[in-house]
């Protein structure tokens, strides 16, 4: 989670007005892939990390500083991508206070 927080800090200025989020995928083999939220309308941190992990996301753990989004806006729901990638465990730093998400991303 510390790596996810550090990665989120790096995205602080470019992700506005979206929250700055960091995500880390740790494969079953222990390989680490990181992602940070990009500019509005572009990939969220979870998606960036999943893209980097590719097939190694299958059976992996994902750490995210914020609950993954579960709605469609300018981008698709991160929760759907996480499930499709075969992630078996998700650890979040905090729930998303946005009413469109607020607990739905961790059910």
Question: Could you give a short account of the major beta sheet?
Answer: 4 strands, mixed
CATH architecture descriptor name = 3-Layer(aba) Sandwich
Total domains: 1
CATH class: Alpha Beta
Number of helical stretches of at least 4 residues = 3
The helical percent reads: 10-25%
Question: Which outline best applies?
Answer: globular
Distance between the termini: 20 Å
- Unreliable segments (pLDDT under 50, ≥5 consecutive)? none
* Secondary-structure class: alpha+beta
Indicate the CATH topology. Cytidine Deaminase, domain 2
Strand proportion, as a percent range, falls in 15-25%
CA radius of gyration: 12 Å
| Strand/helix succession | HEEHEHE
Describe the overall structure.
- This protein is of the alpha+beta class and 107 residues long.
- The protein has a single domain, classed as 3-Layer(aba) Sandwich (Cytidine Deaminase, domain 2), CATH 3.40.140.10.
- It contains three helices and four strands, in the order H-E-E-H-E-H-E.
- It has helices spanning 2-10, 45-53, 78-85; strands spanning 22-26, 32-36, 61-64, 89-92.
- A four-stranded mixed beta sheet has the order 2-1-3-4.
Topology:
Elements: H1 2-10, E1 22-26, E2 32-36, H2 45-53, E3 61-64, H3 78-85, E4 89-92
Parallel strand pairs: 3-4
Antiparallel strand pairs: 1-2, 1-3
Quick recap:
With 107 residues, this protein is of the alpha+beta class.
Question: Which key phrases capture this entry?
Answer:
107 residues, alpha+beta, Cytidine Deaminase, domain 2, four-stranded mixed beta sheet, 3 helices, 17% strand, globular
């Amino acid at each position: 989670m510390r790596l996810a927080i550090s990665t989120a800090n790096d995205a602080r200025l470019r992700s506005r007005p979206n929250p700055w989020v960091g995500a880390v995928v740790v494969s079953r083999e222990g390989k680490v892939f990181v992602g940070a939220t990009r500019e509005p309308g572009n990939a969220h941190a979870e998606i960036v990390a999943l893209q980097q992990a590719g097939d190694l996301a299958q059976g992996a753990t994902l750490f995210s500083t914020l609950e993954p989004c579960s709605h469609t806006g300018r981008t698709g729901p991160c929760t759907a991508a996480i499930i499709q990638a075969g992630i078996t465990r998700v650890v979040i730093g905090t729930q998303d206070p946005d009413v469109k998400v607020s607990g739905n991303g961790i059910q």
